[in-house]
Amino acid sequence: MKLAAVLSAVGLASAHTIFSSLEVGGVNQGLGNGVRVPSYNGPIEDVTSNSLACNGNPNPTSPTNTVINVQAGQNVTAIWRYMLSSTGSAPNDVMDSSHKGPILAYLKKVSDAKTDSGVGNGWFKIQEYGMDSSGVWGTEKVINGQGRHDIRIPACIAPGQYLLRAEMIALHGAGSYPGAQFYMECAQINVIGGTGAKTPPPSACPAPTPEPTPVSKSTSGTLLSPTTSFPDPASSPAKRRNLVRSQERKLATSSKVAGILNPQA
Ligand SMILES: *[C@@H]1O[C@H](CO)[C@@H](O)[C@H](O)[C@H]1NC(C)=O
Ligand SMILES: [Cu+2]
């Protein structure tokens, strides 16, 4: 079992992913244009790291001077690619299929999206998509859907600049800490128009529609309560770590995930 785990870790070492561009209104804004892309596609696993906000050390990101205009209430699409050099959109160009887990999105209101580090308070979650009722994870949907991760920008938020943090979490190594793999980048957006009059936190907005039907116990045991599962980048490091640890304990005792953790078992 241990050997299998080691072998699978080696085999997967480079099978990661990057949110490498943002599509708005059907137009791809360009690789790393308005999205802080890293030089390496590896995950963040230390949930106490400042890099949990917008990636960074050990995957340094490139600054970009672009702030992308987005209409409040509009959908945008985070485009995930295995590497910055990946030009295709087949599953292997997105992320290794072993990487199963939820996909999420957060916003943070900032005064200058080009320079704000994203670290610290102010993040609010606008999406958490775990597993659908037939057992398909959010990451699988993206992997098999040309790397496309649709995110609705709430109509009710105030206009102005935001960091948009799109995230995929891979759970295949999440049996112990560290092990869950957090993949995230931040896009720099300027929310315009709409009815945006409210200010985050999200209590100001109607709760986002759950996507899809929240994970049910009958299909996934103790997995992924859709509201409380994964660490919010705004919460304290200790709280984030505890959240991940408790999640990992749940994962380790779930037979569904045991199959994911030990694909060869
Ligand atoms: C907009 O994105 C949401 C996910 O946030 C998705 O459920 C919905 O189908 C998308 N709508 C359109 C028109 O693409
Ligand atoms: Cu990986």
TrEMBL record:
What segments bear the compositional bias annotation Low complexity?
Answer: 214-229
Q: What is its EC number?
A: 1.14.99.56
Composition bias of kind Pro residues appears in 199-213
What's an example of a GO molecular-function annotation for this chain? metal ion binding
Q: Which Gene3D superfamilies match?
A: 2.70.50.70
- The residues covered by the Auxiliary Activity family 9 catalytic domain are 16-203
| Span of the signal peptide | 1-15
GO process terms (BP)? cellulose catabolic process
Region of interest called Disordered, as start-end residue ranges on this chain: 198-265
Pfam families per the UniProt record, alphabetical? AA9
Catalyzed reactions per annotation: [(1->4)-beta-D-glucosyl]n+m + reduced acceptor + O2 = 4-dehydro-beta-D-glucosyl-[(1->4)-beta-D-glucosyl]n-1 + [(1->4)-beta-D-glucosyl]m + acceptor + H2O
Q: Which domain of life is it from?
A: Eukaryota
Localization in the cell: Secreted
What is one term from the GO cellular component aspect held by the record?
extracellular region
Q: Give the protein's cofactors.
A: Cu(2+)
- Which of UniProt's keywords are assigned here? Carbohydrate metabolism, Cellulose degradation, Copper, Disulfide bond, Metal-binding, Monooxygenase, Oxidoreductase, Polysaccharide degradation, Secreted, Signal
Question: Of which family is this protein a member?
Answer: Belongs to the polysaccharide monooxygenase AA9 family.
The protein, known as:
lytic cellulose monooxygenase (C4-dehydrogenating)
Q: From what organism does this protein derive?
A: Parascedosporium putredinis
